[in-house]
Amino acid sequence: MPPSPSHPKPAGGGPLRRTSRYVAVEVLCHLHRERRPVKPLLDRQSKARGLSDVDRGLAMELVFGVLRHRQVLERMVALLSRTPPARIEPFVMNTLTVGLYQLFFLERIPAPAAVHAMVEVAKEHPIPARLQGFINGILRQALRQREQLPPAATVGADGQPLLNHPPWLVKRWRQRYGDEETARICRSNNEEPLLVLCANSAKIGRDELLAVFRQHGLEATPGRYAPQALALPGYRGRVTDLPGYGEGFFQVQDEAAQLATLLLLPLRRGGRYVDACAGVGGKTVLLLQHALQAGLEVHAVEPDALRRGRLGENIARLGLAEGLTTHGQTLQDFASGREATCDGIFLDAPCSGTGVIGRQPDIRWNRRSEDLALYQSQQLQLLDAAASLLADGGILVYATCSLEPAEDMEVVTAFLHRHRDFCRDDCTPLLPEEARHLVVDGCFQPRPERTIDGFFAARLRRSPR
């Protein structure tokens, strides 16, 4: 099969049609060429094509769905086509996988409409008429094999189950967790995750917030582990449309992240605390809620201007700006020349993100095994900088959203080896009873489930010098 053009050129020089499906295929083609985070790419392409919020939502659902089921969808193509998937031009292949995802995973989209829409996408690229016919033929053949195809496509050519994760990662997990638990983790990652919120205790209690949602006809349940958590299992709309968003009643935050911040407790009244890699401020918010009762001095360190801007917006919406100082610099620069006067530091370090693959399905295909050593080096540098800021008896919580020992326990072990004045505390007593089984070897280590992300956190204490 000869290749078709790699970049869209409108037929007849006219404008490209602004369809969710076209953007989904376009984004998947970009991801095929380069390892990039999918959300900024999706935002940019949606804006360039003028998609509405609703259409962008469908494009995102299609892209994420294909990424979560990529191996099975590609196996379907292999079973339906005489041309091996590796020889099919990326735009054609991605058009097929988006079409097959709609046919077999999105029941609300009528099958004939899905087939017609993907043929129209092919015409807009444009590609030769014979390739348009190829796409039409494969998708209609899939419809004829609607009963037999899905079970056949869950097994690879080698007879092994397809888990929709890269082989290098599956191999690592099997060695550590065994076949059954690895398969469970992968199945969990392939499901659409729950929307989990954290009630802003400065303004409303969790039970009150649950009542607000239920009054508006929304299905809402208490979190399984964290005291301020609640989930909206049936909600598919925009977070900003939820009741209480504008009033600052909640933020989006998984239960693992909520629980990890408890490892800084108990806080010293009037103490100085640092969110060392603040990002958009999820952990900062929880620190500030405690600050209202304990009179804390809270510092948020975030060098990226875009994330820092979103942090400021989030803090303002939640009404928690008092007592916060934001620093637009790296942790190393922040630590340079400062005295060790901090009582607590939360370091949620940059990592591979293998614990949040369910929420960010592009991670599984973007990461490589060799990335882990690079992350580990960066994590140890950040820990060294944080250690230089911590006062005697202070607490340093090291956290990642990774399942990989190279970024988790190995980093903690290396840190303790070169910082002999630190010891590791058992996390168990600081967590709610419901979450204590998530502690392994004294560290908080939940594995991915529909109700919680994969995570790691260790509590490190500085001994008096």
What distance lies between the first and last C-alpha atoms, to the nearest angstrom? 70 Å
Secondary-structure-based class equals alpha/beta
- Largest sheet, if any? 7 strands, mixed
* Average residue pLDDT: 93
Low-confidence stretches: 1-16
Strand content: 5-15%
Count of beta strands: 13
Task: Kindly describe this structure.
The chain has 465 residues and is α/β, with parallel strands linked by helices. Helix content is 44%, strand content 13%. The protein has 18 helices and 13 strands. Helix 1 (20-33) packs across helix 5 (90-105), helix 3 (53-68) packs across helix 5 (90-105) and helix 4 crosses helix 5 (90-105). The chain is globular. Mean pLDDT is 93; it is low at 1-16.
